[in-house]
């Protein structure tokens, strides 16, 4: 059980809630803040003050005053009209993360919603009722309006939720089955549910969790490739990396050295060659730089998952109401664009190592690792597949955050496109994992040719485990299935249902 306070949520806790279905509980102090904030909204309504989104319309309609009798209708109209999501739904694990993040933001006590709303949202999470939320349609400023509107619809008993078999089911029937009472939105509540960055941030957190695992896996897979190519260990000496000073580079070199410790295949300078190619020799520098980017991404995500991204925000018991722009997704847009490049580079250098494993001009292994070169093609086309994926990643890595299209009659004249960046980051991560899966398959075959008894103890344990996933290449077969089995084995989500939904993005 994870206690939500509005200010202490971590990515590790989100991983437990979303990947392992752990339940949430609301802290008493946070509920007190929610109650006080709600009282402030009710005073604003009763005193007929002019406050954006409470007694006025939205966006370009912010100058239109709303009669007190129409406040409820204003909020439900907002949700229904803004539910304009397009395309395939977000993976179910992202939908769950979105609800947790929206709940956590409301618990900061700046949004003015009723306690019953946050309690209902927590009940949906704990009873695993996950909205079907289309991926496309958000500009990433004024918040993730379209995606979060689909989330909000479920709270009022409308829209769709994920069924047991992955199908979209009417939410009203599921709420009745689970004993959850739909709510009737009151003043400010519709706006409070959809003004925020929770779609891009939820997708971003899932991206980070997957990318972090991928980055760790890329190291031992690269180490296995080094063994297959009898790579030179000297380039990983700590003195060289400490001389440059990047902590992430130093850490990668240390972990790489630990993976190959005890190997009889690893060589020293001058034994077989003086230097290795960059894709081997520069692993600490390249992978380390990607870790620097991932550290930046993690820092921004852990701020954003505890951020107040609503508008307006209510302070001092309603005496201070600020209509600002915390819903603008630029911090996460830039972080996701940075992540895209970092993960794409892990795939780029992996594909170059695959080439060194299969190209007979670059090694002393059988051509294309084939058991019968010429008669059988071996891993020839696996390298083609990897090349295709890294090329696609280069297109996806184009930054989304440099684009902006005005909306709401030019009232909202600069937007982040952060949700697009987040979605593309996910696609790159799925592609990159499959490239690493191909490298792993090739490296396993290479060390088998060299003599598995010569491999380091740590990497031999990996090889023995993964030979149960992908068998040795004794003859040509449909390697597509091998790639997908290895991809699945490298996936950080162990729940096959959720894993499938995330992989569907690619």
UniProtKB/TrEMBL annotation:
<keyword id="KW-0369">Histidine metabolism</keyword>
<keyword id="KW-0963">Cytoplasm</keyword>
<feature type="cross-link" description="5-imidazolinone (Ala-Gly)">
    <location>
        <begin position="141"/>
        <end position="143"/>
    </location>
</feature>
<dbReference type="GO" id="GO:0004397">
    <property type="term" value="F:histidine ammonia-lyase activity"/>
</dbReference>
<dbReference type="InterPro" id="IPR022313">
    <property type="entry name" value="Phe/His_NH3-lyase_AS"/>
</dbReference>
<feature type="modified residue" description="2,3-didehydroalanine (Ser)">
    <location>
        <position position="142"/>
    </location>
</feature>
<comment type="similarity">
    <text>Belongs to the PAL/histidase family.</text>
</comment>
<dbReference type="InterPro" id="IPR005921">
    <property type="entry name" value="HutH"/>
</dbReference>
<dbReference type="InterPro" id="IPR024083">
    <property type="entry name" value="Fumarase/histidase_N"/>
</dbReference>
<comment type="pathway">
    <text>Amino-acid degradation; L-histidine degradation into L-glutamate; N-formimidoyl-L-glutamate from L-histidine: step 1/3.</text>
</comment>
<protein>
    <recommendedName>
        <fullName>Histidine ammonia-lyase</fullName>
        <ecNumber>4.3.1.3</ecNumber>
    </recommendedName>
</protein>
<dbReference type="Pfam" id="PF00221">
    <property type="entry name" value="Lyase_aromatic"/>
</dbReference>
<dbReference type="InterPro" id="IPR008948">
    <property type="entry name" value="L-Aspartase-like"/>
</dbReference>
<keyword id="KW-0456">Lyase</keyword>
<dbReference type="InterPro" id="IPR001106">
    <property type="entry name" value="Aromatic_Lyase"/>
</dbReference>
């Amino acid at each position: 059980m994870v206690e939500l306070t509005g200010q202490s949520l971590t990515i590790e806790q989100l991983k437990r809630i979303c990947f392992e279905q752990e339940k949430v509980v609301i802290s008493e102090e946070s509920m007190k803040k929610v109650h006080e904030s709600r009282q402030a909204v009710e005073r604003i309504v009763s005193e007929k003050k002019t406050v954006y989104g409470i007694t006025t319309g939205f966006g370009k309609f912010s100058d239109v005053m709303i009669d007190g009798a129409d406040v409820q209708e204003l909020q439900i109209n907002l949700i229904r009209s803004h539910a304009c999501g397009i395309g395939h739904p977000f993976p179910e694990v992202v939908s769950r993360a979105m609800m947790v993040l929206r709940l956590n933001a409301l618990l900061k006590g700046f949004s003015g919603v009723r306690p019953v709303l946050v309690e209902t949202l927590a009940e949906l999470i704990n009873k695993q009722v996950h909205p079907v939320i289309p991926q496309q349609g958000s500009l990433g400023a004024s918040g993730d309006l379209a995606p979060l509107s689909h989330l909000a619809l479920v709270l009022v008993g409308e829209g769709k939720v994920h069924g047991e078999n992955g199908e979209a089911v009417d939410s009203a029937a599921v709420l009745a089955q689970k004993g959850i009472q739909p709510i009737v939105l009151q003043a400010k509540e519709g706006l409070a549910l959809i003004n925020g960055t929770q779609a891009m941030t939820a997708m971003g957190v899932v991206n980070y969790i997957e990318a972090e695992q991928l980055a760790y896996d890329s190291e031992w897979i690269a180490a296995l490739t080094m063994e297959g190519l009898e790579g030179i260990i000297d380039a990983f000496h700590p003195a060289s990396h400490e001389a440059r000073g990047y902590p992430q580079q130093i850490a990668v070199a240390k972990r790489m050295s630990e993976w190959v410790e005890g190997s009889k295949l690893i060589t020293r300078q001058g034994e077989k060659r003086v230097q290795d190619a960059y894709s081997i020799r520069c692993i600490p520098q390249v992978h380390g730089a990607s870790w620097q980017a991932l550290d930046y991404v993690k820092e921004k995500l852990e701020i954003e998952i505890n951020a107040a991204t609503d508008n307006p925000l209510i302070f001092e018991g309603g005496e201070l109401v600020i209509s600002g722009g915390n819903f603008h997704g630029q911090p996460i847009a830039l972080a996701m664009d940075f992540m895209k490049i970092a993960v794409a580079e892990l795939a780029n250098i992996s594909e170059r190592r695959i080439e060194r494993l299969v190209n007979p001009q670059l090694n002393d292994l059988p051509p294309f690792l084939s058991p019968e070169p010429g008669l059988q093609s071996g891993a020839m086309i696996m390298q083609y597949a990897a090349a295709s994926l890294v090329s696609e990643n280069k297109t996806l890595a184009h930054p989304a955050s440099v684009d902006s299209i005005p909306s709401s009659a030019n009232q909202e004249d600069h937007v982040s496109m952060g949700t697009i960046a987040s979605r593309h980051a996910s696609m790159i991560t799925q592609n990159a994992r499959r490239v690493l899966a191909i490298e792993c398959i090739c490296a396993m075959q290479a060390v088998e040719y060299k003599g598995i008894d010569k491999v380091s103890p740590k990497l031999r344990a990996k090889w023995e485990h993964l030979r149960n996933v992908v068998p040795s290449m004794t003859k040509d077969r449909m390697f597509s299935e091998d790639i997908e089995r290895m991809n699945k084995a490298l996936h950080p989500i162990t729940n096959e249902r959720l894993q499938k939904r995330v992989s569907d993005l690619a």
